Amino acid sequence: MSDEILGRGGVISKRNGCVVRPLNKWSASVHLLLSHLHQKGFHQCPALVAIEEKCEVLSFVAGDCYDYPLQGAIATEQALISAAQLLREFHDASSDFLQQHVSDKLVWMLPSREPQQVICHGDYAPYNLALNGDSVRGIFDFDTVHPGPRIWDIAYAIYCFAPFKTDVNDRLGSLEQQTYRARLFCDIYGVSSLDRGQLVDNMVQRLQALVTFMHQQAEQDNRQLIENLQDGHHLAYLSDIEYLIENKRFISDSIIR
Ligand SMILES: Nc1ncnc2c1ncn2[C@@H]1O[C@H](COP(=O)(O)OP(=O)(O)O)[C@@H](O)[C@H]1O
Ligand SMILES: [Mg+2]
């Protein structure tokens, strides 16, 4: 049976019901994490099936996949609620990972951030989730995982789900509607009052870190990131940073309990 191309310029494919993805420097650490998650009873993520010369073979996370613009099931309140619940379960299942792997040399794509409370997914966005109807049931694309505080990952997830995006293709709803969705995400996840007060700053810092990472990778000849910069992807993030800073007071006042 021939491979079915799934993404990223043909380097990710589906074969015999599994996903075949390129191996990276951080893959061994990601595999330890996936194994840990399953041991903790968190099964809504891929499991490692095999390692080939240059590829990892992962189990397929069943469900419907979406991307921007957010339309249909992924744009519903139920999708937002189930996404917040699933992020909480993932974080909780990852919270003792570092303690259990102190003697392992762990390598991640993205820098760790203090305090290292959980393993952050790093790209917990609508396009990395699988849905059953309008309920989020699974997460994939673990390349960006790294240790960090809960709010660091929550901030990026809320940025993507509210969404606090200004690009014509990605934007959805008014500032009031976006802020309502941000608050709902916080309520369902159970975000502390302290973290709610840090949410906008974390969204801004996370986007700044993303733009810095894009430039660093392009300088190191990462073809995909060079193309992304040429296509102006970073300009959308910079515009979203401005939008968040302009509206920080309104968003913060609305989500702090
Ligand atoms: N384990 C998986 N289960 C189900 N689908 C997957 C899985 N891994 C990847 N995919 C599909 O392949 C696409 C690309 O893979 P992904 O891991 O998200 O890489 P990238 O976003 O870097 O291209 C995803 O959007 C998804 O549709
Ligand atoms: Mg992806």
Automatic annotation (TrEMBL):
Q: Per its UniProt record, what Pfam families does this chain match?
A: APH
> What InterPro entries is this protein classified in?
Aminoglycoside_PTrfase (IPR002575), Kinase-like_dom_sf (IPR011009)
> Out of the domains of life, which is the source?
Bacteria
Please give the start and end residues of each transmembrane region: none
Sequence ranges assigned to domain Aminoglycoside phosphotransferase in this UniProt record? 105-180
> What is the designated name of this protein?
Phosphotransferase
From the broadest rank down, the organism's phylogenetic lineage runs:
Bacteria, Pseudomonadati, Pseudomonadota, Gammaproteobacteria, Vibrionales
